[in-house]
Design a protein that fits this description.
The protein has 161 residues and is mostly beta strands. Helices cover 6% and strands 52% of the residues.
Length: 161
């Protein structure tokens, strides 16, 4: 799909040229129903939809500390819907195990070294770049509910230096 942008009175309006996919729309009640289905610490995410390049649109309910994640080819774009906690990030993690096959390959578990912590709460918007170790940790007695969109990076060779 090709998008065109028009700037009118300081507002950007996007219009599609030759739309080839239908709009995905879920009402808040549908999302609440999906979010309230039984979650487990090892499966906190609920798939809402999948895009044409295998990107995944998820709602995640974290009731406890999440595993460390490092996605090889996908940025995580997240919006915190409810709750409070911390997003812990770092350049690397030890003890992670490889999961999946390209392009969905990722490393899970382990421990982040030289980490930074960002307080997160309802309404926050986050972009976690591919290759960055990250972990969501809900505040004590709270949970984190957030939307995540997996955005695949262009197929570029990434070199480790």
């Amino acid at each position: 799909m090709v998008l065109g942008a028009v700037l009118v009175c300081g507002t950007v309006c996007l219009h599609a040229q030759n739309p080839t996919r239908p709009v995905i729309k879920l009402r808040s009640e549908q999302i609440d129903s999906i979010s309230s289905s039984k979650v487990s610490p090892d499966k906190p995410g609920r798939l809402l939809a999948t895009g044409p390049s295998d990107e995944r649109y998820l709602v995640v309910v974290r009731t406890g500390e999440g595993a460390v994640e490092i996605h090889e080819q996908y940025d995580d774009v997240a919006v915190i819907r409810a709750g409070h906690g911390v997003l812990k990030t770092g350049a690397s993690a030890t003890g992670s195990k490889l999961s999946g096959a390209a392009p969905n390959r990722e490393w899970l578990g382990g421990e982040i070294h030289d980490s930074a912590e960002y307080p997160v709460g309802a309404g926050d918007f986050l972009v976690i770049p591919a290759g960055l170790a990250h972990q969501y940790i809900p505040a004590a007695g709270d949970s984190l509910v957030y939307f995540t969109i997996k955005v695949r990076q262009a197929d570029v060779k990434r070199s480790k230096k």
